[in-house]
Design brief:
Blueprint: H1 6-17, H2 24-49, H3 61-71, H4 75-96, H5 107-131
Helix pairs in contact: 1-2, 1-5, 2-4, 2-5, 3-4, 4-5
């Protein structure tokens, strides 16, 4: 049975509602990362199966997928690529930068960043759903 990538977004939503798990920054980092990977993996599957794109299956695929979607002539593809790239940039910060929270001084800012990631992921998945019809 294959993994349902939507479960990553559902996990991100659950984390955003439960302030008893981890620190605010750790929760935010997880939320951003899981929201991105939900969209990335579903977008990758769409591009491979519907658009017949060939991806290398390496770290460069993340940027390449965003680029190809943004360059596609279909409006929802272009917007999906833009949303995916915004999520990608936040995810890189969440996963790799120790100063991810430098520009933020309070928990409310972290909550805002978390909500933005979830909202962007939901919007991207709406676009993807329309493309799959």
């Amino acid at each position: 049975m294959s993994f349902n990538w939507i479960d990553y977004l559902e996990l991100a939503k659950a984390l955003s509602l439960n302030s008893n798990i981890g620190t605010p920054e750790a929760r935010c980092r997880c939320i951003v990362s899981r929201a991105y990977y939900a969209v990335y993996n579903l977008s990758r599957e769409y591009c491979e199966y519907k658009l017949k794109m060939t991806l290398r299956k390496d770290a460069g695929d993340h940027r390449e997928l965003c680029k190809r979607l943004k360059e596609n002539g279909i409006g929802d593809c272009k917007k999906l690529g833009q949303l995916l790239f915004a999520l990608y940039q936040e995810r890189v910060g969440a996963d790799y930068q120790s100063d991810f929270n430098n520009e933020m001084s309070d928990n409310e800012s972290l909550n805002l960043k978390s909500r933005l990631a979830i909202n962007n992921a939901q919007e991207a998945l709406k676009r993807l759903d329309r493309l799959n019809r």
